[in-house]
Amino acid sequence: MATSLSHPDPIKPPMSPYVADLTEGEHMIVWSLRRIAVAKTWCPLIDFELARIFKKHQGDVRAAFQQLVSILADHGRRRLRLGLPGMPTLTVDEKLILAILAAAQAQEPIRLKAHLTWLLGRSETQKLFPVVTVIAAGLALNGFPIRTPQNTLQDSWQTPAGSSAIRLM
Q1: pLDDT < 70: residue spans in the chain
Q2: What single DSSP character describes residue 77?
């Protein structure tokens, strides 16, 4: 029996807490954030993946992604909980970042502001609006819709086994 490695169907049941169940675009976002957090620097592999996924929009999305990481590192009031590369489950903050991108793709500014406020720990989120919009639009334009994770903030006080609180940059 042959297995298909093609792009998963974006209209499938709600997002599972497992990295293996993410769509290609969702996986790239989580993988890139984890890689940046651990290495504390930008990586050429991320550029390769951005070029592969975003094609002609790579430059705009790369700049927005770097701004996102910078703003989260410089203006967040709490440490983000990101899994180490290879960890099979998503952390609450990784789900929240995917929920932010899903809200930006769906053009739901109220939900987007609520998620950004929770992520930053402050209400001054206007710097992030254009940044996440560019990333979300780049994903959508290249056929990578982001699904809304279920129970984004449920058990946010718990850190899953194998994860660590990593401060971006």
Answers
A1: 1-16, 150-169
A2: S
